[in-house]
């Protein structure tokens, strides 16, 4: 067994990966800049990563790790987390130490590098000569820096990861490592105090603080599956060890102060703590057990001496251990975050620069441009075009209820085609007519099927992985299959799955409404798409309308004037909508976004630019459409007046018409009205279908991105599952072998796997803790 009395955090391992092709491809696909502009930056980034793959334990490795971490921090302000690079890292803690985790996440890479910086500080502290005062100071500083790295990692890095971190860099595990490093830093300070022979009362407080830190590490270890039982035993033994050391020093202080009864009580309390520590001594490093046994021997000797002196000389009453005043703690250490990590930009400029990809426009700026386009198009469509279309639909529905313009056309053109209807038929034929409408419906159906296929494929992959996880959990049991369930590990993906599914269902329902309208008016669409002679033959002739009395002529003339106003309104609106669309098409905010990006980078060069930071710019820019929104409101007011006038004119017209209209005129009116309604329905459906086509084309992008994220997640989970399954099998084989060759282990905290005692490199030789010095 090893002779070390402290622990080191093992470094996480990784493989060499080809960054260059992946980053070049990502820049080419996602940015408006050519990747050749960043050829040197990409090469340098790959070199920096190669320098930190499985580093040696030495101070220069900290420099290499820090340089790469700081550049990654700067890169995070330029690239999104998912840059299509699968970073593979291998665990080093727990019973799945050989398991690899693969994530397409830049923050996952940062987390592992910062973890290794902390681990490297812990090993450098371990390498110090802790038998000297200077060595203890340096070791204490290294352990505090390690604690600072793990604290920063927990608070600022893993919170940025897109997926849950693996167990050995989870928040609970990082709490354990932080408390362990603080405990060992405090232990170094305590040991320096012992070497310097300072007052027993202060040494007691320092020792009690060491015990407190180990107790905190022990409590945190119970909340994670990444800590092996060897470490649990180490924490437990050290906790009681230093509780005994604190009581021993307090007893020594009582002896110096003439408190002989309290001295005996504290020596008894120290012996009790020693007994509790010895329960775990069988499973800890030899140096820890030897220190404990040395303290136990000293306590036994001092207790015999103190008891004899008190019985024969002092006769002081001995209080119960429960009545003893508590020993106060005295923390002299803290988690020190390295300056280079807290002030990364300063470090980049002073030592670790120049920053890579400095000329790359941040991904958030490209996102901001897309967001603005979406927001602009939404505003123009919903608040301008859609509302204007809704007014036109309201107008046409109103006219249809009155039988207009069919009743007026039947009177004015008792035979032949009314010019307006002929123009409408020609417009339909020019746009492709029935065939084009049917083809567009099929096109939208095909696009919908493509999007649905992508969604179903992603959903099937997620459900398949979920079933695999549930099967393995049922086979191994929840105690051994301790990773997060699929729904919990991929909570964001499952939420997105539900959201995308809801969108697809709403879109499918809308498509069915459009198809139902098409079927309802299909015969009219066919007729309007054909020859004008066919339309003319379809219309009944009005033989009894050769003569119109003066009253009817007057009322029809008045109504015609109002219908001419309708034609002008329709033309004006079509022109307005075309102008607004052109205005939106030419509305380019790229230059403004680049200017704002440059301003934000000057304010905080390392700050991660978010699309939300462009909100003020968006708000100001979209004010250019306020006049258009007002124009829609004015049109609504104008239409209300026009409809009132039409209704009054139609009442007078209908009254005059009733006196002279025959059945043939009524039939012709109905036919004309049907064709006019078919024209407006054709326009409505074509608009709806174009919107549907645009929706499915646009929707395919987030669906494809979602599918990629699902595939990355499932790949990572399956690799993790395969290796965890193998580790469980290997552990079972080891335990089976151990039961035939070793005695039963000591009782352990509930839920922990049995200890595996080996001559691994987790322990390292160093100077042991010395007890028994008198101040």
Question: Would you write up a description of this structure?
Answer:
It is built from 25 helices and 3 strands. The two termini are 33 Å apart. Helix 8 packs antiparallel against helix 9. Strands 1-2-3 form a 3-stranded antiparallel beta sheet. It is elongated and about 145 Å long. It has 775 residues and is mainly α. It comes from Lipomyces orientalis. This is BRO1-like domain-containing protein.
What count of helical segments does DSSP give? 25
Mean pLDDT: 87
Oligomeric state of the chains in view? single chain
- Into which percentage range does the β-strand content fall? under 5%
Uncertain spans: 738-775
Beta strand count: 3
Please summarize the sheet with the most strands: 3 strands, antiparallel
Percent helix among the residues? over 70%
**Roughly how many Å is the radius of gyration?**
41 Å
Strand order of the largest sheet: 1-2-3
- N-to-C CA distance: 33 Å
Gross morphology: elongated
Structural class: mainly alpha
List the secondary-structure elements in sequence, H or E: EHHHEEHHHHHHHHHHHHHHHHHHHHHH
Protein name: BRO1-like domain-containing protein
Organism: Lipomyces orientalis
């Amino acid at each position: 067994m090893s002779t070390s009395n402290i622990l080191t955090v093992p470094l996480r391992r990784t493989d060499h990966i080809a960054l260059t092709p992946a980053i070049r491809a990502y820049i080419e696909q996602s940015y408006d800049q050519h990747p050749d502009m960043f050829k040197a930056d990409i090469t340098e980034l790959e070199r920096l990563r190669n320098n930190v793959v499985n580093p040696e334990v030495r101070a220069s490795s900290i420099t290499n790790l820090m340089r790469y971490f700081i550049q990654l921090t700067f890169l995070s302000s330029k690239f999104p987390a998912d840059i299509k690079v699968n970073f593979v890292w291998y665990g080093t803690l727990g019973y799945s130490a050989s398991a690899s985790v693969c994530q397409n996440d830049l923050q996952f890479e940062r987390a592992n590098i910062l973890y290794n910086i902390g681990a490297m500080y812990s090993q450098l502290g371990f390498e110090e000569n802790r038998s000297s005062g200077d060595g203890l100071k340096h070791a204490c500083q290294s352990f505090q820096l390690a604690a600072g790295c793990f604290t920063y990692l927990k608070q600022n890095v893993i919170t940025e990861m897109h997926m849950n971190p693996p167990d050995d860099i989870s928040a609970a595990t990082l709490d354990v490592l932080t408390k362990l490093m603080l405990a060992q830093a405090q232990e170094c300070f305590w040991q320096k105090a012992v070497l310097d022979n300072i007052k027993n009362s202060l040494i007691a407080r320092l020792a009690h603080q060491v015990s407190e830190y180990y107790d905190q590490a022990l409590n945190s270890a119970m909340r994670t599956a990444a800590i092996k039982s060897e470490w649990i035993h180490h924490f437990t033994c050290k906790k009681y060890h230093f509780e005994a050391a604190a009581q021993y020093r307090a007893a020594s202080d009582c002896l110096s102060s003439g408190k002989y009864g309290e001295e005996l009580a504290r020596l008894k309390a120290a012996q009790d703590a020693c007994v509790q520590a010895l329960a775990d001594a069988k499973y800890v490093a030899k140096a820890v057990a030897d220190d404990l046994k040395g303290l136990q021997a000293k306590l036994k000797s001092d207790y015999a001496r103190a008891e004899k002196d008190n019985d024969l000389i002092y006769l002081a009453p001995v209080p119960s251990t429960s009545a003893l005043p508590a020993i106060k703690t005295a923390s002299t250490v803290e988690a020190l975050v390295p300056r280079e990590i807290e002030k990364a930009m300063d470090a980049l400029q002073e030592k670790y620069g120049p920053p890579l990809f400095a000329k790359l426009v941040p991904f958030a700026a490209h996102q901001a441009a897309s967001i603005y386009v979406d927001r602009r198009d939404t505003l123009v469509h919903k608040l301008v075009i859609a509302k204007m279309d809704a007014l036109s639909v309201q107008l046409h529905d109103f006219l249809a209820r009155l039988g207009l313009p069919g009743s007026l056309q039947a009177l004015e053109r008792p035979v032949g085609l009314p010019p307006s209807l002929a123009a409408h038929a020609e417009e339909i034929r020019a746009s492709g007519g029935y065939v084009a409408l049917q083809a567009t419906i099929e096109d939208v159906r095909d696009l919908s099927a493509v999007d649905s296929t992508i969604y179903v494929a992603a959903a099937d992959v997620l459900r398949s992985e979920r079933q695999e996880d549930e099967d393995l959990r049922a086979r191994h049991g929840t105690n051994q299959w301790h990773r997060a369930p699929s729904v919990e590990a991929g909570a964001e993906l499952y939420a997105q799955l539900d959201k995308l599914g809801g969108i697809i269902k709403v879109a499918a329902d809308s498509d069915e409404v459009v198809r139902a309208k098409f079927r309802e008016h299909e015969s009219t669409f066919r007729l309007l798409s054909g020859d004008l002679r066919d339309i003319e033959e379809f219309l009944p002739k009005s033989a009894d309308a050769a003569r119109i009395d003066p009253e009817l002529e007057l009322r029809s003339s008045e109504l015609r004037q109002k219908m001419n106003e309708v034609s002008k309104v329709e033309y004006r609106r079509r022109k307005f909508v075309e102008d607004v669309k052109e205005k939106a098409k030419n509305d380019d905010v790229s230059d403004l976004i680049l200017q704002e990006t440059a301003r934000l980078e000057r304010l905080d060069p390392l700050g991660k630019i978010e699309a939300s930071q462009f909100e003020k710019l968006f708000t100001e820019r979209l004010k250019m459409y306020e006049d258009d929104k007002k124009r829609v409101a004015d049109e609504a007011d104008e239409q209300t007046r026009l409809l009132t006038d039409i209704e009054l004119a139609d009442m007078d017209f209908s009254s005059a018409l009733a006196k002279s209209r025959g059945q043939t005129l009524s039939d012709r009116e109905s036919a004309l009205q049907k064709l006019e309604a078919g024209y407006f329905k054709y326009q409505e459906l074509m608009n709806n279908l174009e919107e549907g086509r645009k929706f499915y084309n646009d929707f395919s992008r987030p669906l494809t991105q979602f599918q990629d994220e699902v595939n990355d997640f499932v790949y990572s989970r399956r690799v993790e599952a395969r290796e965890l399954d193998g580790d469980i099998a290997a552990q079972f084989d080891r335990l089976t072998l151990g039961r035939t060759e070793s005695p039963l282990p000591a009782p352990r905290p509930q839920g922990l796997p049995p200890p595996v005692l080996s001559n691994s490199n987790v322990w390292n030789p160093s100077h042991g803790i010395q007890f028994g010095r008198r101040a």
